[in-house]
Amino acid sequence: MQTQIIDFGAARERHLTRARDESSIQALLIASATHDVDIVQELIGTSGLHPDATISGKPTALSYSVMKPHWPLMNFLLDSGAAPTTSDAVGMTPLHYAVLGGRVACVAALIERGANIEATNLKGISAVQMAAVNAPASCCHRYLRRLSHKREVWL
Fold first, then answer.
1. CATH number at residue 95
2. Choosing a second label site near 112 at 20 to 30 A (CA), which of 74, 118, 133, 142?
């Protein structure tokens, strides 16, 4: 009978690394949701987390930064490489959340950085449609409506 030596040390280290990473990602998402720019900058700059890091299909840090709009945090995340096209488990993109946040400057900045106004969530609703339903008289809806007419996107 042959004896096999199992290296539990390597498996333990992988598990601890994954746990540390998930803890750091959770900290990034909470700091973004609470607009703690200093912690977000530290986690991305010093710890090397990617700004699009997320867990369990949660929204990204960028999405949290535009839900209750925070211009400096949003710009830092975009400048650090956050993708305005990343969607969460329900298909919502940062643009969807920016529309719900209601700040047209955030909506415009995301589109300028490559957000897709035609992207739909899992219910098939685009950010343009969301703006039309949730706040038809809002600046966000008027801005997106103007863009969609130029691009011939259905409202």
1. 1.25.40.20
2. 133
Residue 98 token pair: 């920016």
CA dist 75 and 136 (Å) reads 27
For residue range 80-124, list pLDDT tens digits in order.
999 999 999 999 999 999 998 888 889 999 999 999 988 999 999
Count of the separate structural domains present in the chain: 1
Question: Which residues of the chain are under the pLDDT cut of 50?
Answer: 12, 15-17, 153-155
Query: Do 155 and 145 touch, CB atoms closer than 8 A?
Result: yes
Q: Which domain holds residue 98?
A: 8-53+63-151
Other Cβ atoms within 10 Å of 134 Cβ, number: 13
